[in-house]
Amino acid sequence: MTNSAVTIQRYADGLYGIVPASGALTAAPGPDTMVLEAIGGHLIWNVLAGPALPAASIDDVDSAQEWVWAVYGESVAVALDDFGRDDAPETTVPVAESGLSVLAAAAQRLAYAHWASRWWPASVLDGIAALDPALLDRDIAALTEECDALVDGPDAVVPAAPVLRVSGLRASDYALAAGDEPQAAGALVLARGTAGWDWRRCPPGLVDASESAVSWQLVRDSAATTVAIAVAAHPDRVADIPDHLRPWARVDTGRGEFDTALRPAHDAWVGESTLSAADSTLRIAIHVPGFGPIPDTAQPLADADSAEAALRARVRDFAAARLRHALDPAAESRFPPLLAEIAAAAEDSDF
Fold first, then answer.
1. Are residues 95 and 101 in contact, defined by beta-carbon separation less than 8 angstroms?
2. What is the tens place of the pLDDT at every residue in 320-334?
3. What gap in Å lies between CA 240 and CA 66, rounded to an integer?
4. pTM of this prediction?
5. Residue 123 in contact with residue 37, Cβ under 8 Å?
6. Helix (H) or strand (E) run with residue 83 in it
């Protein structure tokens, strides 16, 4: 048995945090963050970190004490109770590392299943199979029952088990159409490009998670310049998506910005707009109006794009590795695959 430590911190408005050496509390959860609503607080993990103690944000110490004891151990539960009666900004408490408790391990798997329902990077272009939402709901239901002493709020609701989908689609059934449409006689393609998109700006199930999902081309024809945009659709995009949930493309021409509505077309979202003037390189940002965070205009766009693209690449690599190991009995068993992952891996191997 080895020893590590967690830090108990005090925040404004009566909030407390429990932060392991390998974890952190984040104010802006993103594609690498798993969050589980618990009684009296929230538990937070980094999905790329593997099995680990979570960080915790606590708003009701008395209500949270039962699971604090089960997840972190007696020493942390006692220290948290004592900490509420003094004025110290933080205190460090040793934790015996004898492996995660049964409840802590189940809670992390439940948080992971919820994460997968929001952030799983399904991509035909990158060969990452989609997870069956019905099987994922079954995973969530079973794990929610295991964690009934801990979970609260929406995360405590056991989803009904829907009918399983039957998919006969293969990667070869999909193709990104941008640039493949025949041009009118006399039309000139001035420029074209591909890019990824900010996963935080669209609900799940709409857009392929690849870093080459967004394609555009600048076309000059009959004295008019048009930008044509095609965005690869999510492998399991449903047919009837309400207008208010359809993605849009924000086009930065270098001289101004405007939004272009996208419409479904086979395995893509497509749209066109006429430009008055543009540089040869455009920036295309995909978003659903009103969904996700407002972009940070204080941060240089190139820096933000680079950091976010690197994170998305790590998440895609993680998901691909999970699918590779899902059917391998010799693979790491401390964080076993979900039923949805096993089914996706088996289906993908048939192709």
1. no
2. 999 999 988 677 667
3. 45
4. 0.88
5. no
6. helix 74-83
